[in-house]
Amino acid sequence: MNEQDLFILADTTLLGVINQIHSDQWTMTMPPDFPTWDPNATITLREVINYHAYDEAWVPDTLSGKTIEEVGKAHDGDLLGDDPKQSFTRHVEAAVAAVRNLDDLDRVVHLSYAGAGHLIGKAYLPAGSTRVAGGRLETGGTPQANAAAQADAWPQVLRFLEAALR
To answer: Between 131 and 117, where is the model more confident?
Structure first.
């Protein structure tokens, strides 16, 4: 199975799970041990699915090579509207179509991580602040978002290097 097939399988499987959500469940509060960036936050199932919709919405733009600046805030806010299942389905269909139509696996892709700073570095090393010439360069982001960005980006860098250096 290649990366495209795996993405499509994962996306359609998630859609199948989301299509099982009943209309009275969207406002359910997630359990207290549900992991969030803010351990004191209380979020609903709808908010969790909206986060997934946000990720889905970025796929076509990312794969077409658009930058954060080009897309702007087009995917911010409520992406589920009055019909969450149908809205999420449209986002999945657009993402799957973009992946199916991807004809150049070496295409430049711009990665974006909400809440992460400008320099995320390698995985498993502290981020958000870097020692430079006897001082510190504050590169922003929250520790949690920087760590998540590192954990996601570093394996992608390694895969790129492995493919490029063959």
So the answer is: 117
96 plus 128 within the same structural domain: no
Report the pLDDT averaged over residues 95-111. Answer: 82
Structural domain for 120, as ranges: 113-166
Number of Cβ within a 10 Å radius of residue 63: 17
* Same domain membership, residue 72 and residue 135: no
State whether 95 and 18 are in the same domain: yes
Look up the pTM and report it.
0.67
Nearest to 50 by CA among 17, 22, 76: 76
- Report the distance separating Cα 99 and Cα 93, nearest Å: 10
Domain tally, the chain: 2
Average pLDDT, the chain: 82
- Whether the CB-CB separation of 153 and 163 falls below 8 Å is answered with no
Number of other residues whose CB lies within 10 A of the CB of residue 111:
14
Place of tokens 């077409």: 64
What are the tokens at 135?
């001082």
Encode 25-53: b = buried (16+ Cβ within 10 Å), e = exposed.
Answer: ebeeeeeeeeeeeeeeeeeebbbebbebb
Same domain, 82 and 122: no
Token code pair at residue 161: 């290097």
Res. 68: pLDDT tops 60: yes
